[in-house]
Specification:
about 80 residues, 4-stranded mixed sheet, about 30% strand, 2 helices
């Protein structure tokens, strides 16, 4: 069961809109392509995870801070036996 759905990253949404309105320079285009491929990979992973028969809790796009360091966990799966990143 998915408790936190995956949203399209704000940076990717902004670059999608900009790419429709103007020509992006090569560095920005490379960033756009990289963000798009990453998001598509996460969506592919989600389809794979949704096929699991085991009862689990799925949390996507967790933004955490530990010791003044901010990091993101793309997907966290919680089952009765273990927690998987």
């Amino acid at each position: 069961m998915i408790y936190k759905r995956r949203d399209k990253p704000i940076g990717l949404r902004m670059l999608e809109l900009l790419s429709k309105r103007m020509s992006l320079d090569s560095k920005t285009m490379q960033q756009y392509v990289s963000l798009k491929k990453g998001y598509e990979g996460e969506l592919f992973f989600d389809t794979f995870i949704n096929e699991l028969k085991e009862e689990c809790i799925i949390l996507n796009d967790l933004l955490l801070e530990v010791n003044h360091t901010v990091f993101q966990i793309d997907s966290l799966l919680i089952t009765q036996e273990k927690i998987q990143l």
